[in-house]
Amino acid sequence: MLLLMLLALLWGGSPAQDLGFSLQVQRVVTVQEGLCVRVPCTLSYPPLGWTEDTPALGYWFLAGTDSSVGRPVATNDQNRAVRTVPQDRFQLVGDPQNRNCSLLIREALVEDSALYFFRVERGRYVQYSFMKNQFYLQVTVLTLTPRPQDHGTHLTCRVDFSRKGVSTERTIRLNVAHAPKDLVISVSRANTSALEPPAHSPHLEAEKGQFLRLLCAADSQPPATLSWALEDRVLSRSHPQGSGTLELVLPGVKPGNSGCYTCRAENRLGSQSRTLDLSVQYAPENLRVMTLHANRTVLENLGNGTSLPVLEGQSLRLLCVTHSNPPARLSWVLGGQTLSPSQPTDPGILELPQIEMEHEGDLTCQAQNPLGSQHVSLHLSVVYKGLVSKAFTNGTFLGIGIMTLLFLCLLLVMKTLKKKQTQAGTPPRPRATRRSTILDYINVFPNPGPLAQNRKATPSSPSQAPPPGAHSLEFKKNQKELHVVAHTCPGPKSFTQASESENNQEELHYATLHFLGLRPWETQEPKDTYSEYTNIKFH
What we know:
By secondary structure, this protein is of the alpha+beta class. It contains five helices and 31 strands. Among the domains are: 2-140, Immunoglobulins (Immunoglobulin-like, Sandwich); 178-281, Immunoglobulins (Immunoglobulin-like, Sandwich); 436-520 and 528-538, no CATH class. Helix content is 16%, strand content 41%. Strand 16 (225-230) and strand 17 form a beta hairpin. Residues 1-15, 430-507 and 521-531 have low confidence and may be disordered. InterPro entries: Ig-like_dom, Ig-like_dom_sf, Ig-like_fold, Ig_I-set, Ig_sub, Ig_sub2, Ig_V-set, SIGLEC. Residues 180-279, 284-381 form the Ig-like domain. One of its GO terms (molecular function) is carbohydrate binding. Belongs to the immunoglobulin superfamily. SIGLEC (sialic acid binding Ig-like lectin) family.
């Protein structure tokens, strides 16, 4: 019988349990992370191969460890190293010699969660691992994830030792720091404190001249620095220890205020931003019409009511431009009839490849959107080629006729002045015979003209030298006559000379007569005309 028991003990298995090997332990042991737990354990083994003085050795192993060579987590065998660090976190507090295998675990870690089994050794034959009596250690974590709204609240940790009737607790004030969150943008369209609820759409439309107030708010700890920026340009910035809100006031929005507005909240833990796309809408304005004539490369601006003459058969290109939001619809109207655009994708361009008669009239460019309209009108005047040449010919003949009429009037005035001078009373003098005379005439103007070429006249019949006395008398007489004539009647002037004389305050006229010789008076019938040869010099 004893031999059968020894064989069963050596083979192990359920027969061994039946022969006196047993172990009682909790199947699952739960402990919170960082705390300690005692695992009660009792065992029994048969009294074979040992005495009361034989020491009993106990080992707690992590499941899956080879008990013959592996390191236990706790043991009372001083010659066996353990695997836990520090070494005293797992302790075999029970004495296997007294059938006690209790285990103490301190400062439990989450990674300690696992299956554990016990082995006992006493004498040569009691060497047994209780593989079917394992327990599972479950290390739980007392988790508290503070939320932003928990900032400033009190947290109390309380531990009760119910068996001993002892408890302890500790209270702290939470200081929850977090990056900016829940950033919102609110809008007010009136100069009041009322704000519209934040919209989910990042787009905002406003009419030109409207009041806008944009408010940015964010939740953060420590308080975040807020800023408003338009595109890449920072418009305003809050104080680092501000109230967590920042407003941007646009008292009268303009087209230049359109763009992408960004509110950014930032602290040492992170940042958050939100954008708002502002679109300022307005009626068409600054409507302009520009033209590009044939053989030209420069656009010409045309104002409202401009008359635009265009040569028949010439090409014309007109461009209508305006500023508006939403974009205006452009159209061309000629004489009350809407013209089809030359380029459907750009209705502001009107091309007339060949100007014809029916193109003449009022041409209007209209710009219209839901907020208003604007127009610019031109008068297109077609100039025909035949009329241009005919008008040029008629103008030429008209100019020639006018010049001829002026010339005849000038001759008439000269004749009238000469007749009045004759009637003014210069005493008649005897008609002189042909003689040789040199007349030097000096007329001083601000711009003297060229000297007249000397001319000498040779009498048809030989002349005889007169007596010195007669020469002197006749010289004085003729000199007096010519002197009076030169100073009293300078004669008609040309149109140019008349203009020049009007521009000058005074004109001085000097005349000098020098008679080279006199011939005796010839007795003959007076004639209406006579010939006189002189030499006239202009200085």
